[in-house]
Design a protein that fits this description.
Rossmann fold, about 45% helix, homotetramer, oxidoreductase (chains A, B, C, D), oxidoreductase activity (chains A, B, C, D), seven-stranded parallel sheet, SDR_DHRS6-like (chains A, B, C, D), NAD(P)-bd_dom_sf (chains A, B, C, D)
Chain lengths: ~260, ~260, ~260, ~260
């Protein structure tokens, strides 16, 4: 994949889950990788080992432990990118920022969703896709034919208890990705969402009561297993191929058919 | 429609367009009407005449010229409602708050959409539906079988230039209405969105370049005219009937078939 | 509802389930009722009692025990209708023809779906909607403002084991109803599908293994019960009101929110 | 792509348009190619030249000028395939059978759609996908991990004048592909539909009045050109990669964003 070596993939939220798996796969495809992530020193031990694997693909690598949602950090990230990229460009932007508030709308015992919960989740999971697209665009960092990929879930059209803020944010994210596909088309930018099935990640396991969701998802999946981060990363890779250049504005399920039932 | 006279319909944004038409129709159906609106003294002349028409239906009427999005105003509105309602309840909440920022994502000449444009639009057009539902719920103002109706448009799934912030907000609004339908079902609350066609209102006429949109919409509509506010108010009325009580969580086009093409 | 008494509702498949419930409700709304059904003498005892209830609404009533899918029977039905209607017209056509083949695509033990199973089901459940629309149209039996209503289910977009032929037919039915909405719009015809939830009917109870489906549907329904035929008939009634005349080409869930999860 | 050389791709309707382009691309990917087509001797001159290009990819090639919808021909095709494949398997089935009746539902001058038009179109464009899946399955010709790809269009959800029969068939095709995805999942079969944009093919140019459709499609496409067969073939290729194995039961637009507006 020598032809990719002048291009970069920027992964927002790339130190775990779908983002990390995408980074690994795109490195194997020959892309230089920049990961923006937010982790404590304690977490970095394990993550560094993962980053070493990425570097072993013999590509240029940059990780920035900075908040992708903060104005000052964003300037810093852009500045670091400009230094590092020199004359190369960003061909791939992967948005894997998950920061949602899980609360019920009605509860006798616990606090319920506030207006702010909706706004914070919407900003982090949806508007940030536009912010970053705009930031790279204004700074002329996009390649001539570039691909933006964001992650959504069935929750954008199916309400689940406790997920109202995430549901609204994901619905907004899909709408924003369609607007980006439309308005940035003249500049060679393609933008798609991948609707991942219930994915076997650490964050899933940490949700209270996730055992039931996991069991139920396996049962309902025609292929009888959870989605793995690698399944999704595989399709990220496909969407970055030359052959995918006529696909834009789509929401593409990658779930082994889980959404069918 | 004597049976409705112990129930109120609360219309957020009821001094023009879909909100006003809904208020008129629901008054004819026998509901007492409370309209929350935000208008200057100059505008009130014309609006007062409309309010007089509503009162002529021989129902109780209350209009509150207050900002439905402001925390203090909201307290004031709730307090006024409690005074006025006495032992009666709110059976219908109509959300007709339109406050969106129309800007492009890309422009050489004009300012483009900011992160804040998205957030302000989302809060006004989407989150406020939840806020008001929560407010009436906490204050025990909902009737046992109540109906929440919000207005969306094809723009939630179809991007249009300059409409990205509204598109994301409408997509979020639909998601929130589904979550309300799910989580408030145990309390007898039904929540639906009406997807109105391009509607012949003053605000439409004031959009720069709306002539083309109007001409195009008439042509594409199988019934060869624009949607009128009364068409939509008619379906608001139907959704408040006893016969509609098994409908919830839906997005219902009311557009003479405009969405078909 | 005196204003309806010069109009007829023609119910195809009106001796049980959604069709019968619709006939009852529309009779209460003042429509004259013609039911086309196919029943044995043994079944007619019970059904006649139901028909008597309809007649008690003091409307004109006609039942024709003839096959709505057979060419000769169709001529006979049209001829009988012309005699009976005199100068009145058909304002409502309700399509409630259910005749599907339930087989798996893959089975070690039983016969699997054949090409013919798909065709027979498609003709009975989908194409017949067009055939009857065309038949009434050619014979100038439709009123100036008329409503066509057909019944679909989530199965049109969600595959279920054993339901592939019905799923394809329902998807086709929805497409046909959209084409009717578009092409017959100039003649005042509105056409909508109601997507009923899992409905508590005798035919449901007769499906092998339906206990699980029933239990599961109750659990998943935010309103914690099955859909009843009357819930659906209620919305048929609403769609025949003057207020619904701007709704066409839609698929409208009537399921207490069951489709949400 | 040496790893593909033990696998075959069977293309139904592979002598022109999307089918032929897919065959060419899959041959470049290293698949052996079998094309089933139906052409006159006069047409074969030009087509043979295309087939020679495919053979130049240095793969095994078989073309069968036989009717893929006829029972006897189908037996003959299966028999020829078995001879040719020996111990190799079919990994890819591409369904590109287009045979639809284009007529209006209402016309003063011309004949309108008949019941048979719907049935013939449904059988050719939709049920044949199931028939061929079943035929290859029963004859144990599918590889362990195989991909079925069918072509649909926006017409499945958007009615167009004269396209009612095709619209119903495409909606049925999508439903059948979902059922195949579900029921054949245990046997390693993945099934997806590609929703191609308005594609620049000879058959498009032959439709009366297609100039307007072409002009309109270019204008509405964010990428300002028609879809080309190669755009679609590119995504067929991606869906046959190992990386796509977790995608099934989807309808995937490949249209440069045309469906967005």
């Amino acid at each position: 994949m020598v032809e990719n070596n002048k291009y970069w993939a920027l992964i927002l939220g790339g130190s775990s889950g779908l983002g990390l798996a995408s980074a690994k796969k795109l490195a194997q495809d020959g892309f230089n990788i920049c990961i923006v992530h937010r982790n404590s020193r304690a977490e970095m031990n394990e993550i560094s080992a993962e980053f070493e694997k990425i570097k072993s693909s013999n590509i240029s690598f940059l990780n920035l432990n900075l908040d992708a949602l903060n104005v000052e950090s964003k300037s810093k990230i852009i500045s670091e990118l400009k230094d590092k990229l020199e004359n190369t460009k960003i061909k791939v932007l992967v948005h894997s920022i998950a920061k949602g508030n899980l609360k019920s709308m009605v509860s006798e015992d616990n606090s319920v969703l506030s207006s702010d919960d909706f706004l914070i989740t919407f900003q982090a999971m949806a508007v940030s896709l536009y912010d970053w697209t705009q930031l790279l665009f204004e700074n002329k960092l996009f390649a001539e034919d570039s691909r933006i990929i964001a992650f959504t879930s069935e929750g954008s059209t199916k309400p689940w208890k406790n997920y109202a803020a995430v549901s609204a944010a994901k619905a907004g994210l899909e709408a924003i990705s369609r607007s980006i596909a439309l308005e940035f088309a003249p500049f060679g930018i393609k933008c798609n969402c991948i609707q991942a099935g219930v994915t076997d990640t650490r964050s899933l396991q940490m949700i209270p009561g996730s055992e039931d969701l996991i069991k139920n998802s396996i049962e309902r999946n025609p292929n009888k297993r959870l989605t793995m981060s690698e399944d999704v990363a595989n399709v990220v890779s496909l969407l970055c191929k030359n052959e995918a250049k006529w696909m834009t504005g789509n929401v593409i399920p990658v779930d082994g058919g889980e959404h069918l039932q």
